[in-house]
Amino acid sequence: MSSDPFPERLSTDAPAVTRQEMHFRRIDMRGYRRSDGLYEVEGRVTDRKAEDFTPASGGRPVPAGEPVHDMGVRLVYDDRMVVHDVQTFTRAAPYPVCPEAGRALQSIKGLRMTGGWGREVRARLGGARGCTHLMELLMPLATTAFQTLGGTRAGQPERVDATGRPLKIDSCYAYAAGGELVRQRWPQFFRPDPPKA
Q1: Number of C-alpha atoms within 13 angstroms, CB side, residue 61?
Q2: Which pLDDT tens digit goes with each residue over 39-96?
Q3: CA neighbor of 139 nearest in space, from 123, 119, 111
Q4: How far, in Å, CA of 4 to CA of 8, rounded?
Q5: Which region holds residue 172: left if phi is over 0, alpha if psi is between -120 and 50, else beta?
Q6: Is 27 within 8 Å of 44 (Cβ atoms)?
Q7: Burial of 64 (0-12, 13-18, 19+ CB in 10 A)
Q8: Residues of the chain whose pLDDT is less than 50?
Q9: Could you tell me the pTM of the whole model?
Q10: Taking the CB of residue 76, how many other CB atoms lie within 10 A of it?
């Protein structure tokens, strides 16, 4: 059903084992610049089973290889990362009621996809208020939206805190204050890691 991204055994010391694929999930994310000055980011999740599948709760039977889920979200946003519009689709889901859950995502209009985004999304859409699959797309959609703006922000001043320290420092492993990247790019903010005992 899918090509194996891990073709070799993970450890040469482990005994050889065979595997049977049971589930396949694909998540696609894409970002766009629009002609009206806004941006769009789209996410889609597709789940397939390797064998015929019928949900335990009696939903629709799904033949092997056919999508159990094929759902997506499109967010329209501006250069401040504020959501202007939300669109969803459900082409495949195990229960007839599933497509209705997309309406709940309208509650995120006006939110900014910055710090606190995940907490606010969970507060508005968690549990029975929304669709788990659509809600799960919203977290990586925010980072995809940020990456989409990356090219438009080239040449702009580095975002810094009140002390002038770039906000990228300590935002991920590569930008650790004690790492080589920070030492080269912002030597005045480089803080070597303490020696290990």
Answers
A1: 3
A2: 999 999 999 999 999 988 877 889 999 999 999 999 999 999 999 999 999 999 988 8
A3: 119
A4: 9
A5: beta
A6: yes
A7: exposed
A8: none
A9: 0.76
A10: 18
